[in-house]
Design a protein that fits this description.
The protein is an alpha+beta fold and 147 residues long. The chain has one domain (4-142): Nucleoside Triphosphate Pyrophosphohydrolase. 20% of the residues lie in helices and 37% in strands. The protein contains three helices and seven strands; from the N terminus they run E-E-E-H-E-E-E-E-H-H. It has helices at 49-60, 119-123, 131-142, and strands at 4-13, 16-22, 34-36, 66-78, 85-95, 102-104, 111-117. Strands 1, 2, 3, 4, 5, 6 and 7 form a seven-stranded mixed β-sheet that branches. Strand 6 (102-104) and strand 7 form a beta hairpin. The longest helix is centred in the middle third of the chain and has 12 residues, at 49-60.
């Protein structure tokens, strides 16, 4: 099986980062909001980073008041569901609205919860974050985006 490609957003406001978890599956694991990269059909080009991340953020931010910015890098690890690896491209995102605390995806029939995490909250519960999310959080702390 080929590694799954994901594009996600690091939404940081007031020194807190937004994470989501799937209430239908993997309900104990928090991840960055994002989406899998759709494989283009023949003669189609791959969707842009903005298009991929926007699909995920539009579910969380009803007013679509966000901006996708700086590329923060690619992080690899075991998927929360196990069994395969993911390559997660992470981009900084600026948001100007509060996320919907619980939101449903009409596309896949799944329910998601979103929550802001401070570094204190993250430090007290690392076992609840996916492998790639842990790597991203460590990196964001190292470069001073999370304190």
């Amino acid at each position: 099986m080929e590694d799954e490609r994901i594009r996600s957003a690091a939404c940081i406001v007031d020194n807190k980062i937004l994470l989501v978890r799937n209430l239908t599956k993997n309900k104990d694991t928090w991840v960055l909001p994002g989406e899998s990269v759709e494989i283009p059909k023949e003669n189609e080009k791959e969707e842009s980073q903005y298009e991929t991340i926007s699909r995920g953020l539009k579910k969380i931010f009803p007013l679509n008041d966000f901006y996708i910015g700086q590329d923060l890098g690619c992080f690899s690890g075991l998927a929360p569901s196990g069994g395969h690896f993911i390559n997660e491209e992470v981009y900084r995102a600026m948001v100007n609205e509060e996320p919907a605390p619980v939101h449903d995806s009409a596309l896949d029939g799944e329910s998601w919860e979103s929550k802001w995490f401070s570094m204190n909250m993250i430090a007290s519960g690392m076992e609840y974050f996916s492998e790639t999310t842990k790597k991203v959080l460590t990196y964001l702390k190292e470069i001073g985006l999370l304190k």
